[in-house]
Every structure is written in structure tokens, then in C-alpha cells.
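Entry:
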Amino acid sequence: MKIGLTEVIILHDNNTPKEVSESMNKNGKKFFSALKENQAEGEIRITLGAFGEGFKLYASDVPVAAVRPVIKNFTNGNGVRNILDSVGSAIIEKGEVYSNSDESEHPERIVFVLTAFGRDNASKSFTYSQIADMVAHQSYVYKWKFLCLTNEPFITEQLGILPENVIPLEEDEENDFFADALDELAVRIKSIINE
């Protein structure tokens, strides 16, 4: 294990209204800047992924200083999302990366962040209970921390993400969903690093 290394895996629901994606893009730079300020507590590396109808991890194990928060488009905007398949695939992909690398390079801490709007309606490979089992396994065996930014508490309940690890996404007076949520997420990640 590489002491002081934290990997933050961010899996973003990209099948959202235009104003939601604009909010994520606008506030993303500020969020990553806040994480960069935490480098004194140790190295932070980022993996970014997006899902809608499709799924892809499009930046993997990137130093936080080099992250360019551009939301990739893996959706046609028809409201179809495959959240369960995407979460399951991301956990498996990252698990394989760790199992195929030298243990001395494994992060000391892994934080898995999910953003989710609405409920899943297109997953074919995984069920809620399977993903809940995977979340529990990664949490208890490998000490992953799971956080979720969502407007739909049903998702986190079904996935077994603890209520205290849920950050609500609520529109403010400026039609901005992510300003407060990403500020809180940066604080939560800093707290995990300092545990």
C-alpha cells in the first residue's frame, strides 16, 4: 500500500437536463481546485467516469493537478440510464486494476463518488441487491468509502450507501445543483483523508 495516496473515483450520471450538466461543469473546476489544496495531506489521484445509455471510465489514476473536468457524453438525452451496470462495471474495472498492480502502489484510501439523478431504468447485468453486496464488500474488505450526490434517496437506500454518506442535490435560486454539493463533497473527502 502506498501510504498517503488517495484515489477518488467519480462516476457521473450524464443523462441529466442541460442545466444540471452545466452546473457540474461550472463547479467542477472549483471542486478540483479544493482537492488540490489538500495535497499537503498526501497525494490525490482521480478516476473519472460517466454513464447514461453507455458507460466509460475516461480518465484513470490521474494526478489531481492534471485533471480537466470535462463531462463526456455517453447518452442521447432520452432519460435512459444504466446506473447499476455502470457502478458494477466501475467497481470491477478498478478492482482488476488494483489486483493486476503491485500492492506497494495501491492507494491507502479509495473514495467512490456517484452522482445520480432519477432512478435506474436500463440496467441489464446487475440488480440493486448485487450492487449493494458489492458496495458492502468493497467497504468492509477493502475499506472503500462510498459517497453519493443525488436528488433521489431511493437509489442510495437500495445500494446500501449510508444516509450520512449522501449529499443531496437541490436546485438553488440560481438554478445551480452542484455549487453547495461539490463544496460539501470536497470537505467530506478531506475529512476521509484526515481520518
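The longest strand covers residues 2-13.
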